[in-house]
Amino acid sequence: MMSTSLDLALRQQQAVYWRNHVLRTHDIAAVTPAAIHDAAARLQRFAPYIAQVFPQTQAANGLIESPLQDIAAMQKALQQVTGRLLIKRDSDLPISGSIKARGGIYEVLKHAETLALQSGKLSLNDDYSVLAQNHWREFFNGYRIAVGSTGNLGLSIGIMSAQLGFEVTVHMSADARQWKKDLLRQHSVIVVEYDDDYEAAVASGRSLAAQDPLCHFVDDEQSTDLFFGYAVAAERLQQQLQDLNVRVDAEHPLYVYLPCGVGGGPGGVAYGLKHLYGEHVKPVFVEPTAAPCMLLSIATEQHEAISVADIGLDGKTAADGLAVGRASGLVSRLMSDRLHALSTVADDDLYRYEALLWQQEQCFIEPSAAAGFAAYQMQMAQTDTPATATHIVWATGGSMVPEAERVDYLAYGMSLLKQD
Fold first, then answer.
1. For residues 79 and 229, what is the distance between their CA atoms, to the nearest angstrom?
2. How many helices (H) and strands (E) does the chain have?
3. What is d(CA 218, CA 225) in angstroms, rounded to the nearest whole number?
4. Structure letter (DSSP) for residue 100
5. Which of 104, 110, 289, 393 would give a disulfide with 156, using CB separation of 3.0 to 4.6 Å?
6. pLDDT band at 320; cut points 50, 70, 90
7. What is the band of 197 on the pLDDT scale with cuts at 50, 70, 90?
8. Is the dihedral angle over the CA atoms 226, 229, 235, 237 positive or is it negative?
9. pTM of the model
10. Coil, strand or helix: which one is 9?
11. Rounded-to-integer distance, Cα 184 and Cα 169, Å
């Protein structure tokens, strides 16, 4: 049962830090560590194809991965003197420039593989680079893919599906940025615009896809395939941590700050990390004060049965990728006893952290991707945070933001910093 004080704080759109004390386990039969290994193997099979059609991935042999780096100057600017602060730059992931390049692209690839194997024209032992040939594009063009999105998931689904040859439709909520719609159309993606929110766009897309037996709907609220695509990040991060000589154990816990919308991306990453590190990793989700759907979902234990509208919030936020009113029930159940904490952040603070990161590290991320810094600051204010901990802010998007938008974002953030 959610406390009265938390209920009031959420209704008043206050920035909050809520330590998770929910102990009820909600394991789901379809979600297992074995499924993560299966996803990793599938991505490896597709690596030759990815390297061929997206040259920017050739240096990584067709793997879609991002850097992990120290940001000591940012840590100093935030006036934190203990522990180690790093940033996971999913903002720089190739192809679609956000964390959605993990789960979104993975689900499209899995669907393509399923169709190709069923056709009898591809086997698991084949070199998947053959899928770049025109006859395969013609084959996939007989099928359709659809998704509902606030922006970044739509970009990853749209770009990957179009590259393979699928006819693809992205149902975009009112929160989606115009440049994301324009970019999708440049890739010959059908963009359906809505004056309503994310939930309405997803519901409409799901309903229309259900009427077409040749259409696969990527369901951000319910898809385990999306979840597994995100979860693969954990094993890759483990190697990056080893390369940076970062220990993760009882004396050196790992705090990971993950911006959260409907929950699939952060949920998959957190699930994978908990499998690897158990109690030594402390995932913290962070959401906009106007759309704290996962915090509400877990704190009330009502999961998808409750929306931010039920407590008087409209879900409107500058963090377009996090503008979600109702959490994924799949993810909220899996995360109920796996999250260390959940927190919220005001929109203006997103711009402040974004501008400060650029000022200190010359690293650009979009506003929603800066949410993790707010959670980091809140966690550091907790008296039980060990001085020996490592902290990772997961930057979820930004590299594809047009230059004019970058200038506007940073100018606004710098103006706020000057006022402080």
1. 35
2. 16, 11
3. 9
4. H
5. 104
6. confident
7. confident
8. negative
9. 0.96
10. helix
11. 10
